[in-house]
Amino acid sequence: MKITEHIAQSKDTLFSFEILPPLKGQRIEDIYEVIDPLMEFDPPFINVTYHREEVVYKRLPNGLLEQKTVRKRPGTVGICAALQYRYKVDTVPHMLCGGFSKEDTENALIDLDFLGVENVLALRGDSMKNERFFAPEADGHQYAKDLVGQIKDMNEGRFLDDELQNTNKTNFCIGVAAYPEKHFEAPSLNQDIMHLKQKVDAGADFIITQLFFDNQKYFDFVNRCRKAGITVPIIPGLKPLSTKQHLSFLPHFFKVDLPDDLVKAVVDCKDNAAARQVGIEWGIKQAQELKAAGVPAIHFYSMGRPDNIAAIARATF
C-alpha cells in the first residue's frame, strides 16, 4: 500500500521508523533484532536507507596509495524484500542520485517494482568524503527533483529507451526529504522551501523531515510550506538523543540546533545512561505534542538502537 493511502485511511498518527542495512558481511538477523521490539507499535511502513559508495586508500608495498571504491552497506533492495516477506509491512527504500547513473536508477526501480515495493524516498544524497561538493555520476542526476522526475516518468510508462513498445507503468508513491532548519547548503530557508516545492511539482507525494528537537520549528516550517503551495503530507522525523557526545555530534553531523533546556539537562547528567533517559523524556514530550497536533505520522531514525524509540512509542501510541 502507498504511504499516502496509509495516511488517508488512518484516523490517528502513524508510527514508522528507519533502519540501516547491515555492514557488508554481517547478518540480516542483526536487522531483525532492531525491528522486532518495534513491531508492537504496528508500523505501516519501514524505511531502508541506501549508502552510496565510499573511497578508501590502501597503501601498496612500494609506498604508493591505491584508490578503491567500496560499498560498505549493500543490500537495500534485498532487505526490502525480506522485510515485506517476514513482517508483511510496506517498505520504503531510499533511492539516491549519488552513485547512480540514470540507467542504474531505472534498473533498481524495475527490481523494486517486480518485488511489489510501492514506495520510494528520492534523495540527492551526500557528497563523497573526498569531495568538497556533491558531484553526480556520469549520466546521473544532479538534483533530487530530477530523480523524482525519472520515477514519475516510469509511473507513466516512459523509460530511458524511448523505442520500447508496450511498456508497463510502475506504481511508486514518491517521498522526498525536507529540512525544518534548512539544508546546510541552502542560502536561506525560503530558498530551501522553493527547492522543496520543485520536488513536489516534479511528482513527490509525501515529505519526511530531517530530525529536529524543537517542535515549533517543525510547525513553523509546515506553515511556510503551506503558504508556498506545498499541500502533500509532511511527516516529522525524530531521533532521540542518547549520549552526552550527541551534544556536539548531532549539530555537526545533522546541522540542527539543540534547545538550551535540552543541552543543560544533558550537561548536568553524570553519565551516558542519564543522558539517554533525558533523551527519552525529551522525545516523549516531542512525540506527544506532535501527535496531539494531528501530524500524519511520526518517523523515527533508529540508527540501529530500538530501545529508546520503543520507550517513546510506548508512551505516545
Summarize the structure.
The protein has 317 residues and is α/β, with parallel strands linked by helices. Helix content is 40%, strand content 18%.
Characterization of the model:
The structure is a single chain. With 317 residues, this protein is α/β, with parallel strands linked by helices. It has a single domain, classed as Alpha-Beta Barrel (TIM Barrel). Helices cover 40% and strands 18% of the residues. It has eleven helices and ten strands. An eight-stranded parallel β-barrel has the order 1-2-5-6-7-8-9-10, surrounded by six helices. A two-stranded antiparallel ribbon has the order 3-4. α7 links the parallel β8 and β9. α9 runs antiparallel to α10 and α10 packs parallel to α11. It is globular, with a radius of gyration of 20 Å.
Which strand order do you get reading across the main beta sheet? 1-2-5-6-7-8-9-10
Structural category is: alpha/beta
Poorly predicted regions are none
Count of folded domains: 1
Fraction of residues in helix: 25-40%
Terminal Cα separation, in Å?
A: 21 Å
- Sheet-strand content, in percent, reads 15-25%
Reported CATH architecture? Alpha-Beta Barrel
Q: Rg, please?
A: 20 Å
> H/E element string?
HEHEEEHEHEHEHEHEHHHEH
List the SSEs and their pairings.
Elements: H1 3-9, E1 14-19, H2 29-35, E2 45-48, E3 54-59, E4 65-70, H3 76-87, E5 90-96, H4 102-114, E6 119-123, H5 144-155, E7 173-178, H6 189-202, E8 206-211, H7 215-227, E9 234-238, H8 246-254, H9 260-267, H10 272-292, E10 297-301, H11 307-316
Parallel strand pairs: 1-2, 1-10, 2-5, 5-6, 6-7, 7-8, 8-9, 9-10
Antiparallel strand pairs: 3-4
Helix pairs in contact: 4-5, 5-6, 9-10, 10-11
